Amino acid sequence: MLPRGLLPVVADVLGADIPDVTADHVRAVIDAGLPELDELDAKGEHYKSGKDGSREFAKDISAMANHRGGVLLIGAAEPDQDRPVWTLTPVEIGDEVERRYQGIASTRCAPPLSIRFLSIRTEDDGRGVLLILTTPTPALGPHAVRDGASLSYHRRAHSTTRELTEPEVRQAYAESAAFVSRRQKQAETRLTAARGLLDDGLWLVSIATPDIPGRWPVNADRVGEVRSWKGPQILGPGGVRTPPQEVSTIVGGVQQLRLSDEAKLTDQYHAIYDDGSALGAVS
User: Fold this and answer.
1) How many Cα atoms occupy the beta-carbon half-sphere of 3 within 13 Å?
2) Strand duo 70-74 + 40-43: pairing
3) pLDDT of residue 191
4) How far is Cα 166 from Cα 82, in angstroms, rounded to an integer?
5) What is residue 158's three-state secondary structure?
6) 232 exposed, middle or buried (CB, 10 Å; 0-12, 13-18, 19+)?
7) 31, 115, 225, 267 - which has most CB atoms within 10 Å?
8) Domains of the chain from N-terminus onward
């Protein structure tokens, strides 16, 4: 199941959150003409089988992962001398196709790249368009393309893909290390805050920090949203799960949303922060 809220720029173009995109959305955006975006790339047909096609696919998805993430839309041909407008070009879709692309992402990208799929049927014969989603992974990146014994690094830039220079690769690794360090400091800060709030009993504490940078604004709307939660859900850039039990106290602040079963925090405590991190504690 695709998570909601990913790649909002692409969702705006498609006219719906990505998990809700239908054949009608696809036809409408192709008829209107796909815009040039760093986060969106369209192909009129599947990548060719063999080494060259695999390398080209690995290059395109790693370039998106090394930038802001994005969507490859396979089944839409851009205008050329034979086609003056964008054209829907339905392709084969299904589990076998998806396994092929995931295999390439796992073996030709270093480190292996996890991708998500949305197959949308547009034709009676089962063909359609395939959306391949790539999210940025700063804690793991940059992602390289394996080509024999050599590695190359790519990044999206102004709706095209280019190879990174050696100084840019060094900078990318430095940025990845800095992101990991920030996540560690996030976790330490949350744990320190928990120690100041919880009593002296025995507590099981879990801390989550987001894999993808983002914000989860804490405001009155969020408080109302939390009050409507029923059962575990996925929410926010950190993939935060709601508490498994009912809570009686919900407090919203500038930077965090606190949930507890009692005002004195004697049994369970949960906090979701505006940077997407979260803390849960159960005695």
Assistant:
1) 18
2) parallel
3) 84
4) 39
5) coil
6) exposed
7) 115
8) 8-164 (3.30.950.30), 186-282 (no CATH)
Q: What is the pLDDT of residues 212-261, one digit of tens each?
A: 776 777 777 767 766 666 444 434 344 444 444 444 455 555 566 666 55
User: What token pair was written down for 129?
Assistant: 């368009």
pLDDT in tens, 114-131: 899 999 999 999 999 999
Residues in the chain where the model's pLDDT stays below 70: 1, 214, 222, 225-267
Q: Tell me, what's the pLDDT at 278?
A: 82
Alpha-carbon span 209 to 250, nearest angstrom: 21
C-alpha 145/C-alpha 105 separation (Å) is 9
138, 176 Cβ separation under 8 angstroms: yes
Q: What is the pLDDT of residue 250?
A: 54
Query: 142: cis peptide before it, omega within 30°?
Result: yes
Among residues 51, 77, 160, 72, the alpha carbon closest in space to that of 116 is found at 72
Q: How far is residue 197's CA from residue 190's CA, in Å, rounded to a whole number? A: 11
Q: What is the pLDDT of residue 252?
A: 54
Burial of 184 (0-12, 13-18, 19+ CB in 10 A): exposed
pLDDT at 169: 96
Type of residue found at 149:
A
Contact indicator for 44, 88 with CB cutoff of 8 Å: no
Q: What is the spatial distance between Cα 17 and Cα 75, in angstroms, rounded to a whole number?
A: 19
DSSP 104-142: HHHHTEES----EEEEEE-STTS-EEEEEEE---TTT--
